[in-house]
């Protein structure tokens, strides 16, 4: 997780949902901050009391903690005797031997060949990493394949001598250190060193008993974003996954030094990460962490479950293992919180073993993604299942088996961090008594409104939508990663089809092959933009006099992860159905430059205009766009969808014109529907054009380098067939509206059926967008402006999202939300006969009015969540 900067009441179970197999009693993913603060009080009191109050059992607890840590990373004799673990052991030994060879060949100013020290913090961090990898091999029981390194005190002393050399020549002088990336000095190096101190505790005591204390003192001195050499919970650098890393390191340091106060203080600090973020009652001003709806944010405003979120999950599970039997915290506290994260935060985002791109920040531009990201979550779930009990343990193990069955990539357990996890994973897969199952229903709609993300799932597909707002960043660029990010939070979507190898449809090759302004779902101006390195010749905008340094708040706000400027982004969820809305806006950098608040040479880009809604049903996703154009007079492209395919794949494009004539191929035409089919992959997507200008269909072959999206990527050319269906607006053209439906896995017969009008567009303006699905008896809308709005049976005042479904018994079910998060109440009237409330959420009031039924929802402090009511 190297970087250049950091940021600083649950929905009821809906009536269509399958109950989550994990018991709700056991889950505390929405644990309030006050409850965790109460848990931390005994730890803080123990830390403040000092060593005299630690008790006789302290030494044994420290020994147990170190032994547990060694087992986590090196395995045990029992785990390492397993055949399934052999590949991991071979890899550990081979890596260590290659590092020893590099040490033997080191030149002047190097500890390892090729890693010159003195000015490169990545080289210094890597040098510590190499020492750790050697130390790990000396503590890894061999199992059935002796490496010759296990227990080799000579090699261990070489590692210790290496630590001494690095401290004397490259690390110990704090006046010369702390160049480059802050993360290297406060987290990266400390993580390697802290684990080495645990792995080599006995040999350090025998050979250099002073070295551990020397290193801990230096690590404290480098904690410059902390306070007095310790964590500062008010620091924007000490939040979320970063705080988990720092505190875990300090726990290990305390165990090695026998410093109980360090351990208990670090654990008390780490507990703050586990509290559900309440945006209305922030603790220490921190917005980083998990929210009640399962969202995860890092860097203050970046949707980040798929990178920092999984890093936090991994660290917490490792802490659970390290603390096992030590008595520092009740056994199930951390387990129960992490279980909730898995169920509410991760499981909806993993489709057939693929972790979705919409929550990866700059990590989306890395080659190893998707299936590899999910494997990290799998290891965490394996670890949790060993500490859970009863039905919770069974459900977690069943989820591991389910991911193995549904993934199109074979998970390589040798990539797991822990040999113990590999053995446990093999046991789960071999246990026929464990029923494989997802942690949520196959048909579900998940509104991650706290991070402006929506996931809509059916057995045949998953639809993932990325939005942004005045609360959430449009994208993340940093450290030369994600170089072309500008439109990734502007309604960009990923439509994953079941049964497919997603590396052939998405991942790094999709981001490489598809031009940034042609991402699926995006409305963008037709113009050339330059990357940060191209603009400024560095990886950031450097202007210290105006507050722009590599990790400054100004850099974060305007360069790395700028937010949008409009508050409307969110939607309502009613069982497995949903509606989402988004008003596209300029970002904060453009607004600040226009206001004269940024330097003259700081480059900003203006966005195009669009107001959009997504109506998410069973067989189709209906999209409405209004006010599409550009106030600056530029040409604008709206990309309804973009898909990639291998050059050898057989693709066919067929459709019907509005007059009924057949159509095929590419070009611009007044189409009623279009079908994209990849015969090689047995994949298809249909497009039904409900209203708007004629679409343009293109199919090209493109070749681009993966380095175009990330400087550290290999210069690997990617050649793909690139299919797109777009609506083009010429420069100076008036703003337009359009309505269309995406139909996953569509047949031509199915697409032809839309001529019978099961879908009706009730309104499509920048004030109101509404759709009726006659087959499902659903009416849904987004109102974007003040005043009254009317669609079908619904009348609503002011901004809001509403979805209504008529039930077979003559009643209705309705869900309401405030996507702006700024309204105290949202009110609506359902016209027709008066109805009474059968069941309503807290905060919902129902009353009869002439000509209908009035519903008033108290949305104050709800942060965009849905409120539901059943009326009859």
From TrEMBL:
Domain Polysaccharide lyase family 8 central: 445-746
InterPro entries cross-referenced by the UniProt entry: Chondroitin_lyas, Gal_mutarotase_sf_dom, GH-type_carb-bd, Lyase_8, Lyase_8-like_C, Lyase_8_alpha_N, Lyase_8_C, Lyase_8_central_dom
Residue ranges of every copy of the Polysaccharide lyase 8 N-terminal alpha-helical domain listed in the record: 82-397
GO molecular function: lyase activity
Domain of life (superkingdom): Bacteria
Family named by the database record: Belongs to the polysaccharide lyase 8 family.
Protein name per the record: Polysaccharide lyase 8 family protein
């Amino acid at each position: 997780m190297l970087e250049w900067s950091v940021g600083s009441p649950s929905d009821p179970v809906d009536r269509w949902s399958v109950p989550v197999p994990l018991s709700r009693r056991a889950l505390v993913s929405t644990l309030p901050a006050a409850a965790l603060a109460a848990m931390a009080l005994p730890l803080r009191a123990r830390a403040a009391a000092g060593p005299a109050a630690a008790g006789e059992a302290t030494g044994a607890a420290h020994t147990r903690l170190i032994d547990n840590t060694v087992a986590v990373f090196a395995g045990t004799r029992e785990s390492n005797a397993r055949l399934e673990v052999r590949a991991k052991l071979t890899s550990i030994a081979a890596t260590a031997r290659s590092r020893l060879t590099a040490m033997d060949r080191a030149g002047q100013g190097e500890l390892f060949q090729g890693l010159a020290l003195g000015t490169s913090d990545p080289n210094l961090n890597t040098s510590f990493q190499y020492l750790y990898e050697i130390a790990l091999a000396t503590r890894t029981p061999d199992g059935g394949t002796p490496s010759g390194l296990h227990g080799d005190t000579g090699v261990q002393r070489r590692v210790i001598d290496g630590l001494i050399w690095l401290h004397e020549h490259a690390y110990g002088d704090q006046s010369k250190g702390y160049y480059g990336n802050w993360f290297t000095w406060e987290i990266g190096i400390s993580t390697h060193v802290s684990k080495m101190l645990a792995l080599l505790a006995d040999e350090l005591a025998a050979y250099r008993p002073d070295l551990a204390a020397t290193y801990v003192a230096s690590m404290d001195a480098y904690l410059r974003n902390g306070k007095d050499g310790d964590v500062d919970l008010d620091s924007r650098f000490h939040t979320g996954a970063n705080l988990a890393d720092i505190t875990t390191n300090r726990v290990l340091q305390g165990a090695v030094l026998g410093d109980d106060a360090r351990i208990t203080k670090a654990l008390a600090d780490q507990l703050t990460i586990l509290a559900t973020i309440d945006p209305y009652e922030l603790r220490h001003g921190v917005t980083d962490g998990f929210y009640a709806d399962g969202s995860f944010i890092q860097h203050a405003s970046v949707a980040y479950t798929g990178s920092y979120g999984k890093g936090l999950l991994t660290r917490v599970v490792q802490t659970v293992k390290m603390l096992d039997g030590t008595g520092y915290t009740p056994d199930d506290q951390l387990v129960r919180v992490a279980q909730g994260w898995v169920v509410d935060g991760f499981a909806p985002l993993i489709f057939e073993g693929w972790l979705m791109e919409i929550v990866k920040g700059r990590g989306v531009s890395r080659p190893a993604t998707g299936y590899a990201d999910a494997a990290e979550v799998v290891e965490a779930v394996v670890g949790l299942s060993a500490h859970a009990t009863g039905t919770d343990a069974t459900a977690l193990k069943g989820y591991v088996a389910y991911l193995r069955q549904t993934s199109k990539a074979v998970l390589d357990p040798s990539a797991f961090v822990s040999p113990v996890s590999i053995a446990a994973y093999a046991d789960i897969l071999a246990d026929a008594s464990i029923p494989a199952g997802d942690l949520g229903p196959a048909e579900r709609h998940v509104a991650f409104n706290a991070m402006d993300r929506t996931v809509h799932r059916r057995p045949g597909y998953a639809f993932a939508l990325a939005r942004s707002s005045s609360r959430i960043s449009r994208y993340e660029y940093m450290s030369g990663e994600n170089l072309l990010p500008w439109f990734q939070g502007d309604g960009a979507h990923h439509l994953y089809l079941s049964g497919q190898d997603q590396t052939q449809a998405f991942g790094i090759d999709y981001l490489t092959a598809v031009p940034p302004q042609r991402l699926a779902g995006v409305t963008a101006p037709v113009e050339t933009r330059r990357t940060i390195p191209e603009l400024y010749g560095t990886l950031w905008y450097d202007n210290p006099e105006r507050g722009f340094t590599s990790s400054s708040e100004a850099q974060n706000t305007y360069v790395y992860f700028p937010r949008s400027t409009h508050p409307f982004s969110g939607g309502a969820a009613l069982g497995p159905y949903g509606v989402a809305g988004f008003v596209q806006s300029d970002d904060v950098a453009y607004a600040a430059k226009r206001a004269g608040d940024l330097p003259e040479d700081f480059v900003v880009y203006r966005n195009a205009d669009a107001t959009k809604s997504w109506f998410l049903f069973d067989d189709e996703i209906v999209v409405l766009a209004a006010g599409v154009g550009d106030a600056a007079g530029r040409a604008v492209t709206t990309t309804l969808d973009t898909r990639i395919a291998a050059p050898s794949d057989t693709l066919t494009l067929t459709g019907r014109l509005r007059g009924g004539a057949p159509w095929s191929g590419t070009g611009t035409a007044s189409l009623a529907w279009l079908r994209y089919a990849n015969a090689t992959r047995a994949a298809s997507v249909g497009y039904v054009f409900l209203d708007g200008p004629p679409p343009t269909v293109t199919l090209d072959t493109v070749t681009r380098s993966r380095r175009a999206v990330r400087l550290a990527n290999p210069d690997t050319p990617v050649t793909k067939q690139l299919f797109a269906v777009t609506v083009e607006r010429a420069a100076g053209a008036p703003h337009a509206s359009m309505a269309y439906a995406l139909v996953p896995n569509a047949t031509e017969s199915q697409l032809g059926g839309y001529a019978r009008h099961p879908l009706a567009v009730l309104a499509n303006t920048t004030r109101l967008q509404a759709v009726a699905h006659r087959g499902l008896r659903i009416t849904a809308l987004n109102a974007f402006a003040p005043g009254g709005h009317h669609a079908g049976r619904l009348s609503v005042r002011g901004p809001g999202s509403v979805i209504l479904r008529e039930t077979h018994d003559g009643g209705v079910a309705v869900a309401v939300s405030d996507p702006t998060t700024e309204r105290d109440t949202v009110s609506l009237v359902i016209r027709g006969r008066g109805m009474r409330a059968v069941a309503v959420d807290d905060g919902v009031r129902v009353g009869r009015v002439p000509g209908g039924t009035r519903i008033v929802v108290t949305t104050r402090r709800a942060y965009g969540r849905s409120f539901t009511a059943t009326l009859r």
